[in-house]
Amino acid sequence: MLGLEKKDFNLLMVVVALSLFAPLILNIFPKESAFAFFNGGYPDLMQRFAIFGIFAIGFNILFGLTGYLSFGHAAFLGVGSYSAVWMFKLLGYNVLPGLILSVITAGLLSVVIGFISLRRSGIYFSILTLAFAQMMYSIAYSDLFGRWLGITLTNGETGLQVYNNDPQILMGPNSSTVPHLFGLEMNSRLTLPVGPWEFVFPVGYYFCAIFLVISFYLSIRIFRSPFGLMLRAVKSNNQRMTYTGLNPRPYTLAAFIISGMFAGLAGGLLASMDPLAGAERMYWTESGAVVIMTVLGGVGTLLGPVLGAGTIKYMENIISKMNEKLLHDWFSFLPESLEKAMVWSASWFTGEGWHMTQGIVFMLVIIFLPGGLVEGGQKLFKRRKHKTEHDTKTKQPAE
Amino acid sequence: MGILEVKGVNKRFGGLQALGDVNLSITDNTVHAIIGPNGAGKSTLLNVLIGKLIPDTGSVMFDGQSVLGRAPHEINQMGISRVFQTPEIFSELNVMENMMISCFAKRDGSFRMQAMADMYREQDVVDKAEKMLVDMDLIDKRHDHTAAMSRGDKRRLEIAMCLSQDPRLLLLDEPTAGMARADTNNTIDLLKQIKEERDITIAIIEHDMHVVFSLAERITVLAQGSPLVEDTPDNIKGHPKVKEAYLGEAA
User: Fold this and answer.
1) What is the average pLDDT score of chain A?
2) How deeply is B234 buried, as exposed, middle or buried, from its count of CB atoms within 10 A (0-12, 13-18, 19+)?
3) What residues 247-286 of chain A have any CB closer than 8 A to a CB of chain B?
4) Is residue A331 part of a domain?
5) Could you count the other beta carbons within 10 Å of the beta carbon of residue B122?
6) A82/chain B closest Cα distance in angstroms
7) Topology of B1-79+167-251 in CATH?
8) In whole angstroms, how far apart are CA A171 and each of A102, A222, A335?
9) Chain B closest CA to A236's CA: distance in Å?
10) Fewer CB within 10 Å: N-end or C-end of chain A?
11) Looking at beta carbons, which residues of chain A come within 8 Å of B67?
């Protein structure tokens, strides 16, 4: 089906099903219940799952296949966002031109950065990409190019946004004033109360999810293609590759550009959900985040980046919202002194301290599951399979 | 005119004259061995031939074209394949994938963007890779990861990968180093068989005289960076200069 082997097709269907039913799965707890706090099914977070899933899928094509660890992919994310907002300013709020431009500009930028950075490998490559991204961040933050040209290009620390006096030449008198796809507004949603539950189906999320599924499909095709094979050859043995008559440089550059374009798409989608673009989106912590997502989920696996992005974004949004008041409520059943102690120790890992939790989870995964969450899943699956096989074997003699 | 012509090649590393005025001609369709004591410059010469080192002076012509200044992948595409001292294969990939990489390189050249094709549906490449694996008796191991294979198997795979590219010249750098006697003899038989079946020139650098005299039709003896003599194996065996180079003046 769709040019995929059965196993890959099933994997694609899993992602389609997860994307389709995410609003149900992520709102598993009834609205008024004690656990409603853990529901991740609100539009803003679901969009992030999909968008950062795309970002990580693209990153994995470079890092997972070729082993080249880019530490500057946020530059493409940021450039994608700026491009999309510029399209909103010049043309209007339809998201399509913005997304197209964001992929193109990110692609062009990755040609330049990739061409220079890929002259080195290993840690030197990582440092070069990091340097480029930080340079892009500084340029955007100070609006250097804009000041040279005498215009506003990135609007510096305020961030780029759409103003009423922008040209927006494609806007008619009745056009929507929020990002939309031919009139379908991204921030509109369908709310469906079912008994104590309340399910929200946001347009913006489904729009992103479609791109997530397409990205996932493309990544499967790349993984299984001769091109993907060559990228794995780069990672495995560069020397044998050149003595087999293959030139690794164009292969790695192509992988770099493809992953840059994925990042640009993710950046464009971020701006499509919320028509703002700021320099902080290019900051090195964002580049680090996508590395962590990919490694946490499983480098070089198909599903890993999506799982990693989901896990990190969930922790970032849910754990960081656990404030002291909430903790007091949770531990209120305990005697007062014990409650205070619990709240005190838990506050290290929640709210502002969510980075601590992220760090610990990351460390545990790296130490015990070097292959990421996907490896964890595989181990679990194998053990169960092994156990059932074992059971049937031991039963056989009795028959 | 030989298929490979080395003329007046010099290479210095600081104060060390690694290669001094090397002239070498390898005739098409022969097995040519290059021997010499340690430090004679064998590896340096080989690295010059495959484009890894650029000599200070001199020329290296393969089939009428200069190889100097070309990237290793270009030299390979000209028709020179190299087998390394320690087998260089793609150790994270399985046997079939290894084989397919070299088959793709033969079919598509040094770069071709095929990001949407399914590698296992490129039937011509799959067929060729499978045929090579059958020929090399590796077909049962096609799904094995190469990292866990024995040295002999790794060597066979590496040679198979080189042969799938139909090279005109196959360079072998001590192909039996570190091998047990049985593996060494298997490798000799394999190389003999390759020579019989194919229109191929083989240049071999080797310490093991058993291997050299089993295979070579011509032998060049290198000593201190320069060719000492070049002759047939029978004449080399009793040559006084060769004895001297290997065993020292006292002999």
Assistant:
1) 91
2) exposed
3) 247, 250-251, 254, 258
4) no
5) 20
6) 29
7) Rossmann fold (3.40.50)
8) 20, 39, 62
9) 5
10) C
11) none
Which pair of tokens denotes residue A50?
A: 């999909």
C-alpha distance from A185 to closest chain B C-alpha (Å): 33
Number of domains in chain A: 1
Tokens of A49: 């799952």
Q: Residue A243 and residue B73: Cβ atoms within 8 Å?
A: yes
**CB-based contact A306:A212 (threshold 8 Å):** yes
A195 lies in a domain? yes
Provide CATH 3.40.50.300 ranges for chain B.
Answer: 1-79+167-251
pLDDT band at A195 (very low <50, low <70, confident <90, very high): confident
For testing contact with chain B, the best of A119, A244, A258, A299 (most B CBs within 10 A): A244
The answer to whether the beta carbons of residues A54 and A211 sit under 8 Å apart is: yes
B8-37 per-position pLDDT tens digit: 999 999 888 889 999 999 999 999 999 888
Asked, for residue A187, whether it belongs to a domain, the answer is yes
CB < 8 Å from A in window 135-154 of B: none
Measured in residues, chain B has a length of 251
By C-alpha distance, the chain B residue nearest A217 is B116
Count A/B contacts: CB-CB distance under 8 Å. 104
pLDDT at B251 (0 to 100): 41
Which CATH number goes with the domain that contains A214?
1.10.3470
Q: Concatenate the DSSP letters of all residues of A5-55 into one string.
A: -HHHHHHHHHHHHHHHHHHHHTT-S-TTSGGGGG---SHHHHHHHHHHHHH
What ipTM was reported for this prediction? 0.91
Q: Is A174 exposed, middle or buried (0-12, 13-18, 19+ CB in 10 A)?
A: exposed
Contact flag A232-B92 (C-beta cutoff 8 Å): yes
Query: Do residue A236 and residue B93 have CB atoms under 8 angstroms apart?
Result: yes
Choose the closest CB to B100 out of A229, A236, A241: A229
Closest CA–CA distance from residue A162 to any residue of chain B (Å): 38
- Distance from the first to the final alpha carbon of chain A: 42
Q: Is A394 part of a structural domain of the chain?
A: no
Q: Could you tell me the residue range of the domain that residue A228 belongs to?
A: 6-299
Confidence of residue A397 (pLDDT cuts 50, 70, 90): very low
pLDDT 10s digits, B153-187: 899 999 999 999 999 999 999 888 888 888 889 88
Q: Which residue has the higher pLDDT, A105 or A348?
A: A105
Res A247: pLDDT: 96
Contact B123/A at CB under 8 A:
no
